[in-house]
C-alpha cells in the first residue's frame, strides 16, 4: 500500500509519474532513452544491468519487473541469481561482465571508480557510448529504487509478466503517455 493516500492501492511507478508529471516526465523520457535509445547495448543487456543493480539494492519492485524483461529478452532465468554470487561464472555474455563490474562498483563504492575500471570496459571492446549507458542505467536504478521504496510502491509478482511485456514492447515513454491521457480523461 503506497504511503501517499493520493496514489491507488496497487500503485505503480507510473502512478507516481502521473501524480507529479512536471517533475517526473523528464525521468520517463530519460528511462526510455536509457533502455531503448541508440547505442551498442542490446535491450536485454540494458535490462540485465538495471536488474542487477536493483537486485543489489533489494528493490523487489524494480528487480521483479526488469529481471522478467531481461529473461523475456533471452537472459537465462538463473543468471541474475548467479551474478549476485560471482560475475565471472554467471551465464551472461563475457563481454558484458566488465560493464556489470563497473555497475557494481559504481553502485556500492562510487568514490572508488578509477580510470582502470573504465579501461577494463574499453579493453573488452566497449566504447564510451556503452559505458555511458551503463552509468545511466546504474544511476536510474538507484533513483527508481529509492523512488518506489520511498512512496511505498510494493512489488506484485503477478504483474511482472505484464510489466515485462509492456516494457519490451512499448518502452517507458508510451506507458507514461497512456497514464497521463487516462489521468486527464478522469479529471474531465
What does this structure look like?
This protein has about 190 residues and is mainly α. The protein has a domain at about 45-170: AhpD-like (Up-down Bundle). The chain contains ten helices and no strands. Helix 3 runs antiparallel to helix 4, helix 3 (about 45-55) packs across helix 8 (about 130-150) and helix 4 crosses helix 9. The relative contact order is 0.19. The mean pLDDT is about 95.
Summarize the structure.
This protein has 188 residues and is an all-alpha fold.
Q: SSE string, helix = H, strand = E?
A: HHHHHHHHHH
The residue ranges in which pLDDT falls below 50 over 5 or more consecutive positions are none
Work out the helix count. Answer: 10
Biggest sheet details: none
Overall form = globular
CATH architecture assignment name of the domain at 43-172: Up-down Bundle
- The CATH class of the domain at 43-172, by name, is Mainly Alpha
Class by alpha and beta content: mainly alpha
What's the CATH H-level homologous superfamily of the domain at 43-172? Answer: AhpD-like
Into which percentage range does the β-strand content fall? under 5%
Q: Which fold does the CATH topology of the domain at 43-172 refer to?
A: AhpD-like
Rg is: 17 Å
Distance between the termini: 27 Å
Fraction of residues in helices?
55-70%
Task: Calculate the mean pLDDT score and round it.
Answer: 94
The number of E-state strands comes to 0
